[in-house]
Specification:
The complex is a heterodimer of chains A (436) and B (293).
Chain A: H1 2-12, H2 18-28, H3 34-42, E1 112-120, H4 130-137, E2 139-143, H5 147-154, H6 163-177, H7 186-202, E3 214-218, E4 221-228, E5 231-238, E6 241-245, H8 255-260, E7 279-283, E8 301-308, H9 318-341, E9 353-360, E10 364-372, E11 385-394, E12 398-400, E13 404-406, E14 409-412, E15 415-417, H10 421-432
Parallel strand pairs in A: 1-5, 2-11, 8-9
Antiparallel strand pairs in A: 1-7, 3-6, 4-5, 6-8, 9-10, 10-11, 12-15, 13-14
Chain B: H1 2-13, E1 65-66, E2 91-92, E3 111-119, E4 128-133, E5 136-141, E6 151-154, E7 170-172, E8 181-183, E9 203-209, E10 212-216, E11 222-226, E12 230-233, H2 249-254, E13 282-283
Parallel strand pairs in B: 11-13
Antiparallel strand pairs in B: 1-2, 3-4, 3-6, 4-5, 7-12, 8-9, 8-12, 9-10, 10-11
Classes of the chains: A alpha+beta (436), B mainly beta (293).
Organism (chain A): Amphiprion ocellaris
Pfam families (chain A): PDCD9
GO biological process, one term (chain A): translation
Amino acid sequence: MFPETAQRLKAAAPLVSQTRLLKDLCRSCPHGGPFSLQARRQISVSGCLSAKIPPPKKPREPVEIPGLEMVTYGERMHFVPGLAKPSYPRWERDYKDPRFYTAPPAQEMPLYKEKPCYVFNQRTSALEGVRQAAWLTKAKVIRGLPPHLLSLAENPENQIPDQDERVQNAIKHARFWDTTQERPRKEKYSNTLLLNLLHLCATLQSRNPALGRRILAEDHSLAATWTRGEDLFQIRGRNGLLQNSMDPLPEASGKDEVSETANYVLETFYPVSPTIDLQQINVYKEDVNCSGFTGNYPYPHAHTLYFLETIHSCKLHPEQFRAKMAMFMFGNALARAHKLYGTEPQQLLDRPITVQAVGTNGRIFQFLVFQLNTTDLSGDDGIKNQLWLEEDVELYDFAKVRPLIKKKQVKVPAGLTGYKPEVFTKFLSLYLHGAA
Amino acid sequence: MAVSCLTRALRSLTLSQPALLSSQTKLGTQVSSTVAQCRGFLTTASLENNRTYWKEREKYTVKPIGMKKTGGRDYTGRIRTHGIGGGHKQKYRWIDFQRLRYEPNKEAKPFDEKVVEVRYDPCRSADIALVAGGNRKRWIIATEKMQAGDVIKTSAVIGRMAVAANEGDAYPLGALPIGTLVNNLEVKPGKGAEYIRAAGTCGILLRKVNGTAIVQLPSKQQVQVLETCMVTVGRVSNVDHNKRIIGKAGRNRWLGIRPSSGLWQRKGGWAGRKIKLLPPMKSYVNLPSISAN
């Protein structure tokens, strides 16, 4: 009976007249007589059976007149038409239960400050790239690595026996052999390649015992604070792979070059403000300076940062990737400087702090060297920091699992093609800097 | 679900004692009377299904938003517009039509923005441009010769002399010389551009009268608006849009256009070339009445 009624009503709803529906309903109900009269009075089916949902009505705002006490039905414990609705204070749990915790709004948090702080984290994609990073870190950008750095690996003593062959084997292992499937995925092969190259460099430890005074660390949390102009900046996040050493890196440039940077004018990019794309927050701790390690860590000096390009949540363009590398190098150097010399801004550091970085996506490498000369970053004049940048160097052209054949001609053969040995020499020289 | 509502409601009719019903339908279209036990019940499917929940984001974002296609169906679920359905998936890029939008916490002064990227938008015929200025980025409708790296200006100042406007800049109508080609016209100041947004279109500023300006729309209709309404200078991008050839039925299907009925239908009074006078000028200016009664 019920399904029949339902089907009939559904099918015939807009077309059937009211009386017919009522008759059907009365026929379907089990009671007869007096009930049907009741039903006829109460069942009202209007013509329109599909209405637009009215927008949610805003409840009437209760008007508060001071001095006038509202008579509510709260005491009577049930609704009485004509009396006001009682308003009760918000109930708070008297014990702390982490399952039902609601965060207070930002204004009520204990660390809330009026002045906003701009935070650069590992997911930030800076719109202007390296120019923005250079402005934020008050650095002069120099294309090309410092020459004395490159000459380190030219020295035949510092070269690995069978260097080219071993590097090519390392690439082949990462790109072809390290999987049970047809080809390894990008995240995997870039990681494997980096670790293989690091291992190759570390084999020189037998000749240079100073290379043993280093250790690798992964995913440590970095935090550093500085002011630039009137704005407060922080860099916070988890780095990539970091190589720490017991001894600090020597300076990459002499005192003369450092004092020459005072004449350099920083590049601005009007109309875009340098704080674009940075996360703006009002709840922050002032003066957080954390290098990621505790005070008595035996390897306190950051030597080289290794960045891998592939993280699915934040895909960065090469320019933004270089900017991220530069900012994190600066963050490490600044955290170290704050620890050594205190948080007061210093015009010129006695010993400039140098940090290196290598970024890769498995084939293309970016080399950066950053030298922190000053922590006085509020003004745009004075001594600047220095950033040496070598971008987009390819270690090899192609590493194909299957050959590329166009029109029955082999354009690119399978296997490793176009290997460039000088890229590994640069990698090695950055590794050996400070020990050789 | 309709059956369960129905059964619940009808079951109440069988009760011998009157009892208060709890609200059964989500809508609660009729308030239960104090005497009887029968409320109106819904015989269609739940109406909540056809709301556009994907559109309810309040904060502006540059990230493309996933879109749900309607297929020409409205809130009742029936086809209201035929010939829409299928097609490639599209993501909605939120365009900021109110060009004169100052950044929060900044003064209300003329400002510059830099064009970062000009790209195709699947949701409209014109191309869109990502512009960055100050601390924020937003999407706007690109004009004809806009390229990445250009700097465009937005100003609300109406001076005595007309401004020599560059393409892509946005000014109020009162500041532009007559005869300029304009697009993205606001008819109510501050509301956002609603007219002249399609690919290759442009309006012409015809005259400036008292505090109002008269613009000719692409349909040759003339419109009178206040001179403080913002407008961008130049033609909208993607000028050759009307010259494109679809080429095959499949391309129309990719655009989400379903085939029309193949039956021959006698054309009525709507078809054929019409030659008639232009409609009178539409005025969006609420002039105060002269007679104060």
